[in-house]
Write a structure and sequence with these properties.
The protein is an alpha/beta fold. It folds into two domains: 3-59, Winged helix-like DNA-binding domain superfamily/Winged helix DNA-binding domain (Arc Repressor Mutant, subunit A), CATH 1.10.10.10; 70-251, Rossmann fold (3-Layer(aba) Sandwich). 38% of the residues lie in helices and 24% in strands. It has helices spanning 3-17, 22-29, 33-45, 68-72, 76-86, 102-110, 124-130, 154-161, 186-197, 236-243; strands at residues 19-21, 49-52, 55-58, 95-98, 118-121, 136-139, 143-145, 150-152, 165-170, 174-175, 180-183, 199-205, 217-221, 227-230, 249-251. The longest helix has 15 residues, at 3-17.
Length: 252
């Protein structure tokens, strides 16, 4: 198969799913993973994709969200490991906030072993799943963002202002190269800021695909959080930056 034909096949997969995995593409197109990496390098230089560990996303506008279904298909094993580590911070009788997202959904699946939690969430999928558990579950009111199944807007913000959480688990669209948590949706950013302010402890759950991507709205610095749980493997230069900042990085 010619390179131009491979690139067209890769673009078809990206447009269909929003994300591609190198090994899956190599197997499907009957070429080596190295060949797929070179193809993705070409697409990245053209500004069509941005590469992540093990794959690539179709490049989105700074103000556009990646859909829930696209996120759900990526890095499932890493997200499950992050969720398992996050579970260590939870004990009975806590009031917990679970942000919208596929990694926080993996954490929600583990909360069925508890019976006395009070859980607040802005995620329709999480609320539906936990409604069958023995925990007390509250769903935010407000506008539903159809791409992600999350709730945002002034109604949700006003609701959060009256609440206080023992611990909040945040998701994110991205963490940029300045070590800032960013989002393409300003309304979502305002909501997350209020949640951080109203939580005794805030922990970011971010799989490796979320790092070093920019977006429209800055929420906070990683330094403003109590911990970051991720499976991201950082370069030596990146790691040197982290250890010089007051960031509690928990690697899974």
């Amino acid at each position: 198969m010619l390179r131009i034909e491979r690139l067209e096949k890769i673009l078809q997969e990206l447009k269909k799913n929003g994300y591609v995995k190198i090994n899956s593409l190599a197997e499907k197109l009957k070429v080596s993973p190295m060949t797929i990496r070179r193809d993705l390098n070409i697409l990245e230089k053209k500004g069509i994709v941005y590469k992540t560990h093990g794959g690539a996303f179709l490049h989105q506008s700074l103000s556009k969200e990646i859909t829930y279904d696209s996120k759900k298909k990526t890095n499932i094993e890493e997200k499950q490991k992050i969720a398992k580590k996050a579970l260590e911070f939870i004990s009975n009788d806590l009031t917990v906030f679970l942000d919208a997202g596929t990694t926080t959904y993996e954490l929600a699946k583990l909360l069925t072993e508890f019976e006395n939690l009070t859980v607040f969430t802005s995620d329709l999928n999480i609320a539906l799943f936990l409604s069958k558990s023995k925990n007390k579950v509250f769903m935010f009111g407000g506008e539903i963002q159809k791409e992600t199944g999350s709730v945002l807007g002034s109604l949700a913000l006003d609701f959060v202002k009256s609440l206080h959480f023992d611990i909040a688990f945040l998701g994110t669209s991205a963490v940029n190269r300045k070590w800032q948590v960013v989002t393409p949706t300003p309304e979502k950013g305002l909501l997350k800021k209020q949640i951080i302010n109203n939580s005794r402890k805030t922990i970011l759950l971010a799989d490796s695909t979320k790092f070093f991507i920019d977006s429209l709205y800055s929420i906070c610095s990683l330094e403003d959080l109590d911990a970051v749980i991720t499976g991201k493997t950082f370069s030596q230069e990146e790691y040197n930056e982290i250890i010089n900042l007051p960031i509690n990085l928990i690697k899974v």
